[in-house]
Amino acid sequence: MSFSVREGEGLWQVRAAAAQAGELADLLVAAGANDAVAVVSLETNSCLDEEWRPLRPSLVAAALGVPCTVHPIGSWASGTIGLSDEILVMERGLLPRLFDGSWSPYELALVDVAPDVTPDQLDELALAIGTAGAGEPLLGRLGDCRIWFSGHDDCYVSLETRDPALPAALLARLPALLAGRALAEITGRIGLAEAEAPPVPEPGAWLAERLMAMAPHWIGAPADVTEELVVIGLAALPEPWRLGVPFPARADLVAALDVPRGNWRLTAAK
């Protein structure tokens, strides 16, 4: 797992791994934001037509039974990073249904919008996204939007938010996901339904708040895993983690999950 956070002028920017959209959808629903979302980019190889071509976002939503409004943005968006040829507008509470775990998007971007957003406003939104510079914060260009969520390979997460509670909630989710995968691996439960996997509680906001108070950039990896105890080594980094950067020789902290009791502890590494 990795986590990096930066805050300035009431805007939080987060980079994190590894988490699927479906594993974070409830956090996006619970966050303080507009009641609708605009899915501006959705690319997947999980949903194909009879000629083995990826379905358009609107057809993916229809196949999942997710009601939405479809706004085509035209050929000018073709090939533009962060934009599909159409935008889906739906209730924010429908995100868990859209990302139900039955499929996987390799590119995803969404932003919260007002339920009565107009076609002209969606065009302006697409233009702002399509003309943003690489690495440039987007929310400052998107009016009263409060959440920008982007996912790559359904694993790497990029988030901008004006809700100060959302970064901590995301960080608290990451060790639980990592512990769950580690337990599934040692118990041979990989590939089974989620309901059959070992239940893993989240450590709560206290762990996330402590980590963010100590350093902005973290990486974590399982150090010891049994059916009774999961130990995750956590190391602060001088800069955001990048693919290929190995875990440091020594952890700074250890997060330990007592599996039978469901309790988490955070201590200094020995």
Commentary on this structure:
The protein has about 270 residues and is α+β, with helices and mostly antiparallel strands. It has 2 domains: about 20-155, no CATH class; about 170-270, no CATH class. About 25% of the residues lie in helices and about 30% in strands. The protein is built from 6 helices and 12 strands. It has helices at about 20-30, 55-65, 95-100, 120-130, 165-185, 205-215; strands at about 1-10, 10-15, 35-45, 70, 85-90, 105-115, 145-150, 155-160, 215-225, 230-235, 255-260, 265-270. It has a 12-stranded antiparallel beta sheet, sandwiched between helices.
Q: Report the total helices.
A: 6
Task: Name the helicity range.
Answer: 10-25%
Instruction: Report the C-alpha radius of gyration, rounded.
Output: 19 Å
N→C terminal distance = 20 Å
Q: What proportion of the residues form beta strands (DSSP E)? A: 25-35%
Low-confidence stretches: none
Inertia-based shape:
globular
Order of helices and strands: EEHEHEEHEHEEHHEEEE
Number of strands: 12
Average pLDDT: 90
Please describe the biggest sheet, giving its number of strands, its sense, and whether it closes into a barrel: 12 strands, antiparallel
Spatial strand sequence of the major β-sheet: 4-5-3-6-7-8-2-1-9-10-11-12
Which structural class do the helices and strands define?
alpha+beta
**What is the count of structural domains?**
2
